[in-house]
Design brief:
Layout: E1 4-7, E2 13-14, E3 17-18, H1 20-32, E4 37-38, H2 52-66, E5 71-75, H3 81-93, E6 98-102, H4 111-124, E7 129-133, H5 135-138, H6 144-153, E8 157-162, H7 167-174, E9 183-186, H8 192-196, E10 202-205, H9 212-223, H10 227-243, H11 251-259, H12 276-288
Parallel strand pairs: 1-4, 1-10, 4-5, 5-6, 6-7, 7-8, 8-9
Antiparallel strand pairs: 2-3
Helix pairs in contact: 1-2, 3-4, 4-6, 9-10, 10-12
């Protein structure tokens, strides 16, 4: 069962190449912070701008650096089913623990098309699969009935990362006839505690790239029944959670990490360095939360 805190790790670049040393230090920082797992090459990892070889290499390096000390959920989704299958099978070969499968974007399949897409991937791998519904980026969401069908038809479809921004959606998911092992993870840091209050069991976090210990403590507190402690963490961190999305992810999180000297503030187009005015606002929020 997937529960707890998972970090959607950035892909550090140096001179337009993967910064291997920075990636290793990032993984070590996650382990030291008590994170349950990492998610390389998702949205935060700038997967659309990595070529196929780089995509697989980031997963391979993440598995190598994790060395079994935390789970690696490889981002291997795509808008072409054949590409998603290929990336997932390669992730399985290099030792990933699971796969995150983003909802196919741009081509807007029907719900039956979505079902067939995920069914084909599930048949092609033994890896546990985490569905990823993020309609703000993909243009469609994975419908409730589709989630229910997939979870019941395929034993390796075990979780959903829910990034639609609505607590009601989590409540609706909990009303479905889902297998007991199937879990829901928040896809938004600011929604983690609200989502957990109605049945989610953790988060795939962007913020934990920068402050893994604090996010992990917040999630563990709620999961352990220490609700007020979790709410205190949420209240303290909320402005930082929000301003880490003041511009398109991952520009803000990379700016903050570069400010700490952990990575270069480097992207691949069309993602660019954030504006100085927004950077100033972001750093003020992070300092107020005590995480910069």
């Amino acid at each position: 069962m997937f529960s707890g805190t998972y970090t959607a790790i950035v892909t550090p670049f140096r001179n337009d190449k993967i910064d291997v040393d920075a990636l290793e230090q990032l993984v070590e920082r996650q382990i030291a912070g008590g994170i349950d797992g990492i998610v390389p090459v998702g949205t935060t990892g700038e997967s659309p701008t990595l070529n196929m070889e780089e995509h697989i290499e980031v997963i391979r390096l993440s598995v190598k650096f994790a060395a079994g000390r935390l789970k690696v959920i490889a981002g291997t989704g795509a808008n072409a089913t054949s590409e998603a299958i290929h990336l997932t099978q390669e992730a399985e070969k290099v030792g990933a623990d699971a796969s995150l499968q983003v909802c196919p974007y741009y081509n807007k399949p029907t719900q039956e098309g979505l079902y067939q897409h995920y069914a084909a991937i599930a048949r092609a791998t033994k890896l546990p699969l985490v569905l990823y519904s993020i309609p703000g980026r993909c243009g469609i969401e994975i419908g409730l009935e589709t989630v229910e069908r997939l979870a019941n038809d395929f034993t390796n479809i075990v979780c959903i990362k829910e990034a639609g921004g609505a607590v009601e959606r989590v409540s609706a998911l909990k009303q479905l006839n889902l297998p007991k092992h199937f879990t829901i993870l928040s896809g938004d840091d600011s929604q983690t505690i609200p989502f957990m209050s109605v049945g989610a069991v953790g988060v795939i976090s962007v913020a934990s790239n920068l402050f893994p210990l604090e996010v992990a403590k917040m999630v563990k507190a709620f999961a352990s029944g220490r609700v007020q402690e979790a709410l205190d963490w949420h209240t303290r961190l909320y402005p930082a959670f929000k301003d880490l999305f003041i511009e398109t992810n991952p520009s803000p999180i990379k700016a903050a990490m570069a400010h700490k000297g952990w990575i270069k503030e480097e992207f691949r187009l069309p993602i660019i360095v954030m504006s100085e005015s927004n950077k100033k606002k972001l750093f003020a929020s992070l300092e107020k939360a005590g995480v910069l």
